[in-house]
Structure formats: C-alpha cells, structure tokens
Design brief:
Layout: E1 5-10, H1 21-40, E2 44-51, H2 56-65, H3 69-87, E3 93-96, H4 100-115, E4 120-129, E5 134-135, E6 141-144, E7 153-154, E8 171-175, E9 183-192, H5 198-212, H6 216-228, E10 233-234, E11 236-238, E12 253-255, H7 257-262, H8 264-275, H9 283-286, E13 292-296, H10 302-317, E14 336-338, H11 353-359, H12 362-371, E15 379-381, H13 383-412, H14 425-446, H15 450-471, H16 473-479, H17 481-502, H18 507-517, H19 550-558, H20 579-583, E16 587-597, E17 605-610, E18 615-620, H21 628-631, E19 635-639, E20 645-647, E21 650-652, E22 655-656, E23 658-660, E24 666-668, E25 680-681
Length: 682
C-alpha cells in the first residue's frame, strides 16, 4: 500500500489567554485523532501548530494588565503548550509567530507581492481616537453589525453572523479605550487584491469539494462570501505590535494578522526542518504536488483557510516560482458550549483546559469531547455527561471487559495467552467482527466523521462484553476447559484490537493496555487480526478508569457562574462620563404597537413604537428572546435621540433598552402603564 504524504495544521490559538474545552473540541482534538490514525496507517505526516502572538487581542490583554505584549505571549504560550502536552496533542512542532523565522517568512511573502506590483496602496479613512492620539485597530472599536444588527460587533468582524466588513460600515462605533465616538482620519495602507481571485477561488472550492467532499457548513460560508462579492482587504494596520512592514516610510505599520498568522504554518515547518537537520525538508511537503494538506479549524476561521490563505498561495504561485499546495480539505467544526451557554470568562462560565487537567486525566476528557464533537452543529459539554461517559462507558464497558478478561486469565491460565481450540459459531462471529472493524473505523476517520468512529469503537467494546458473558468462562473453566481457553484467547485478541482502535482517541489508556498485554502497536493495517501468540506472557492488569463520585460533580456544578473570584483585572472597567454627557441621551417611554421578524435574520425584529407625539421604526436584536406577538403592547424605554442607522437595509430610528441576566437571557426594561408615552427617564 502506498504511503500518503500529508501535512495537517490546526488553527494557531491566540496567546492572549488559556485555551478552554471549546477550543480543544473545535480545531485540536479532531486533528490529533486524525493524525494519530494516519501515523498508525504508516503515512508520512507532519502535524503543525503554534501560538498566534500578534494582533490586537494581544495588545488589549496587555493594556488591561498594564504590561508589555511580550509578557502576555510568553505567559500564555507556555500555559497553552503545557495544556496541549497534558491533553496528549501529538504536534510535530508547536511554534510561535514571534520567532524570527516567522517574521522573515511573512516579509518574504509581502515583498514578493509588493515587488510584483500586486498590492494596491490606498489612502483610506480609519477610526481614530482623538483623546488617545491613536488609530484604533479592529478590536479597539465596537458597534452594531451592519449585517445582522448585533450590538457587540467588532469594527471589522461580527462574531454573531460571521460577516466581515470595512470599519466605516460599522454602525454607532465606540472606542473601547476611551468610550468616545472615534473620528475618521486618513491613513495609508497596502491592500491585497482579493477581488481579482474570486473566479479562481470559486473554481478551487467547487472542484476540491467535488473531489474530496467538504462539509456543508464550510461550503455555505464560502458561497456566502462569493455571492456578496470578494473585496480587496487591507494587508497592513496602524499598530506597534506585529511583523513590521519592511518598506521605507511605513513606520508604525505592521502586517494585518489575517494575512500573517496563516503563514505561521509554513514558518513553523521551516523551523521544524532546521531542528531535524534538513533545512529543505519543509519543501517536500508545502511544495510537493503529491502532498495532501488538511486544515482543522473552528467555523469562525473558515474564510481565512478557504479563501484568504488559498488566494495568498495562488498569488505566490503566479510568479512561476516553487508552487505551494492548497488545502485539500478544511473540516471545520461548529462550536462547543458549556452547560447550555457560551464559554464566558467574565461570568466564570466554563473551564480552561489547564485547570481541568489538574483535576482529571486527559483520556476521559478526550473521549467525552470526541463522542460529542460539534461536527455538524453546536454541541454542549455537561459535567453530568462527562461523569456518565467516564463511569458508564470507559469504566463499566471498556474497563470492565479488560479487567474481567485479565483477571480470569491470570487466575486460571497462569497469566499467559490461552490456546484456541475448536470454534463455535459465537467465536467465529466475534473473529469476523474484529477483522471488519479496522476498515470500518478507518472509513469514518478518512471522512472526518470522528464522532461516528468513537461510537462504533465503543459498540465493539459492548459486543465484547456480551461475548464474554455469553461464553460464560466461569462455567466452562470447570466443565470444558478447551472452550474456556478459546473464548479467553478471543477476548484477549479483542482487547488488542480495542487498544489499537482506541489509541488515537485515548492514547494514554491504550499505552497502558499494551503494557498490560506486554505487546506493542503493530500498525492499523494489522489490527483486527490475531496478534497475540498462544503462550505469550501477560503483565499484571491495572485499573484503567477511576469512577467519578457524585460529590465531585456536585461541587463543580455549585461553582458554575460564581464571579466572586474574578480579579479586578478580569472585570470590565467602563470609562466614566460626566452628568452633561448623560443628559445628552434622551431616554423616553414608548409603546410597541407593531412587531414582525426581519427576513433572513434570526436576531432582528422590526418594531413600530409610539412615543406619544410621533411613531418610529426601530430594528432591535431581540428576536431570539421574544416573539413579535408577545411584545406588542409593552411599554418600554427607548433611546430617542440616537442617530438613525440601517440594519439589513431597514432604517432604525432609536434603540430599545434591555438587560441580560446571568443565564444570558434578555429582559426588556418595562414601565408602568400609567406613565404617559414620551415621558423622559432621568
């Protein structure tokens, strides 16, 4: 069988905070399972990842803590690297984008584009905070998304709907540094002509999907961008932290992290090549047309890996130099929530990987996440489910079968693999099942259906338990020793197969099983066969999975949502305003007299409100919390002197006030029916 040459990448996590379980479930565990499986298949594979250490998220965290960005990236690179190691991630390298190798690679790509005249120099208007005398990068500005109406959108990207847009399109922008409304000020930037690559990108996505089968979620994101029409994107930003633009007169400008971070996959592979003593090794993967490139990401990173990065590689390849390969597949996952809600550090909702792994082994977490991966829709991590997966499946099904078999063999057959004699129908069926399973699981993994693979492997363990019970060795050891010997031999061969099939998912436990078997991995293609010789000496068994007590889970549940332990640095510090500033805002009583959903929006309602002396249209992002029917007739507070804005093509002439409780649900600020419409709140 021919070996595949493969390069696998996982999205580079921002080094501005610890990774949590949602991150593991999205881009890292699925990739690690796939890579481990491919290694067992004997394929030539590299797994590349590292910290994304530039961009505004780093500087925001540094500003909050009043330290330098370098302090932030050093701290969280170390924390996340440790988390990944404890979790069992099998990266060939976990690099950093702050390293010289990365800076040189990023500059090489930029200068290649620049020297060929590909980049467009433009004078543009950017948000500028006059009180701080600085241009405001994307995450330093928040406002209302022009696409879906989300009121907490960044200045260039909406996390709610995934839309990307120019800063100037943001509705009601506010500086996160000062709380003031920023002005627009002219600056110069270099733009990548993404629009010129649209037809080639559409062809690439369509042809690659037709050949290799992309996820529907990924295709929908791509089609949405194509339907809207690709726009040229700024390659540079006004910022101190990042890869400096290597041009005269470009002081204070760095590469936009969108373009620079994805090149971290290439620079990390270059670094790995040097560590392995072969500086050109990276070319055998990135510039080899026979290499298969798979990019594992979360759905929030789809556009960067299916459109922007491929366009950058196409642009390089156009020069006729060494040709870079494009992603063959981008199996993006949806989001993992925590106990029914999004992970939230400010609400103490969720748990970081490093903290989880201080209390629990990695394998029960790997198994629980793998069995519930958000492959096609958002899923949730529940403490109770984690306990059930560990206790009822790993301990009671897999662990129990292994322990019973080993205990019986050590007690009645001196701890050696018993002989196999004449087979009964039950034995034949079990052996045939073992022969079929490696190919069955491989088919799931090749198609990135990891959750299905996990379910089926545990089903094999269930079948193994039934086989053991139906064979009744506790009876046959007294009445028909040859029959007992045969069933135990097949049970041990089954344990070997389970250890091999489970090894990509629970690698630490599989290593223990092989140690108990006094054997080694033979490779995926040999799995499912009779790999243990008769008379082979076994080692003493050990308990693989310790059950988790109810009291432990109850304690975890009790602490959910507690914010008393948040430090002052973790709490949001709002800018102070004067009395005069507050009095400029007209908060008035209004009655909702009409309400209907906005087409093509899950979040927006179109409302007509009566302020007594006039009626207005307000577009409110409350459709997920309220139906149109239930809010008609309510008296609410509206911001009456808000500058009109367009959302989804509809003009909004104000804003309704609401509060969000700790559970994340919305409540309107209602007033007594006796209060007249138009009354101003003070």
């Amino acid at each position: 069988m021919n070996k595949e040459k493969i390069i696998v990448t996982s999205a580079l996590p921002y080094a501005n905070g610890p990774i949590h379980l949602g991150h593991l479930s999205g881009a890292y565990l699925p990739a690690d399972i796939y890579v481990r499986y491919k290694r067992l298949k004997g394929d030539d594979i590299l797994y590349i990842c590292g910290s994304d250490e530039h961009g505004v998220p780093i500087t925001i965290t540094a500003d909050k803590e009043n330290v330098k960005p370098q302090d932030i990236i050093d701290r969280f690179h170390s924390i996340n690297k440790e988390s990944f190691e404890k979790f069992g991630m099998s990266f060939d390298i976990y690099s950093r984008t702050s390293l010289p190798e990365h800076h040189e690679t990023a500059k090489e790509f930029f200068l290649e584009y620049f020297n060929r005249g590909l980049l467009k120099e433009k004078k543009t208007l950017q948000f500028y905070d006059e009180s701080k005398s600085m241009f405001l990068p994307d995450r330093y500005v928040e406002g209302t998304c022009p696409k879906c109406g989300n009121e907490g959108a960044r200045s260039d990207e909406c996390e709610n709907c995934g839309a990307l847009y120019e800063q100037t399109e943001l509705v009601n922008p506010v500086s996160k540094i000062s709380g003031n409304r920023p002005i627009l000020k002219e600056t110069t930037h270099w733009y990548f002509p993404l629009s010129e690559f649209q037809s080639r990108l559409e062809k690439y996505v369509n042809e690659t999907n037709e050949k290799y089968g992309w996820k529907e979620t990924v295709l929908q994101y791509c089609r949405s961008w194509f339907n809207e029409g690709l726009k040229d994107r700024a390659y540079t930003r006004d910022l101190d932290w990042g890869v400096k633009v290597p041009l005269d007169g470009a002081d204070g400008k760095v590469f936009y992290v969108w373009f620079e971070a994805v090149l971290g996959y290439i620079s990390a592979t270059k670094e790995l090549s040097k560590l392995r003593g072969n500086e050109n090794l990276w070319k055998e993967y990135w510039q080899n047309p026979d290499t298969k490139y798979v990019a594992f990401i979360g759905k929030d990173n789809i556009v960067f890996h299916t459109i922007i990065f491929p366009a950058m590689l196409m642009a390089w390849n156009d020069a006729g130099k060494e040709q870079y390969i494009l992603p063959q597949n981008v199996p993006a996952n949806e989001f993992l929530n925590f106990e029914g809600k999004k992970f939230s550090k400010s609400r103490n909702w969720g748990i970081d990987a490093i903290d989880f792994l201080k209390e629990f082994p990695a394998d029960p977490l790997r198994y629980t996440l793998a069995a519930n991966l958000p492959e096609n829709r958002d899923t949730d991590f529940y403490w109770k489910e984690f306990q059930a997966r560990n206790n009822n499946e790993l301990a009671d099904i897999l662990g129990n079968f292994i322990n019973r078999t080993f205990t019986f063999v050590h007690k009645h057959f001196d701890g050696v693999v018993p002989q196999k004699f004449e087979l009964e129908q039950r034995d034949i069926e079990m052996i045939e099942l073992l022969n079929q399973y490696p190919e069955k699981i491989a088919d799931y993994l090749e198609r990135y259906k990891i959750k299905d693979a996990v379910t089926e492997i545990m089903n094999l363990a269930r079948t193994a338990n039934k086989y053991f019970n139906d064979s009744e060795p506790w009876k046959s050891v007294k009445t028909n020793r040859e029959k007992c010997s045969t069933s135990l031999n097949i049970s041990l061969q089954t344990i070997y197969t389970l250890a091999e099939l489970f090894s990509p998912i629970i690698p630490f436990s599989s290593e223990k099983i092989f140690k108990m078997l006094n054997s080694n991995f033979v490779g995926w293609n040999e799995s499912g066969k009779e790999n243990l010789r008769e008379g082979h000496k076994l080692n003493i068994p050990e308990i693989l999975f310790v059950k988790i007590e109810d009291s432990v889970i109850e304690e975890k549940m009790k602490n959910l949502g507690s914010t008393s332990e948040l430090t002052a640095k973790e709490k949001e510090v709002l800018p102070q305003i004067t009395y005069e500033d507050f009095m400029k805002t007209q908060l008035c009583v209004a009655k909702i007299i009409e309400a209907e959903k906005v087409n093509k929006s899950e979040k927006l309602l179109k409302l007509k409100v009566d302020l007594g002396d006039e009626q207005r249209q307000i577009i409110a992002g409350i459709a997920k919390a309220f139906s149109p029917e239930e809010i008609i007739g309510k008296k609410v507070i509206v911001v009456a002197n808000l500058k009109p804005a367009k959302l989804m093509g509809l003009e909004s002439q104000g804003m309704i006030l609401a509060v969000e409780n700790e559970s994340g649900s919305l409540n309107l600020l209602e007033v007594d029916n006796n209060i007249s419409l138009g009354t101003r709140a003070k």
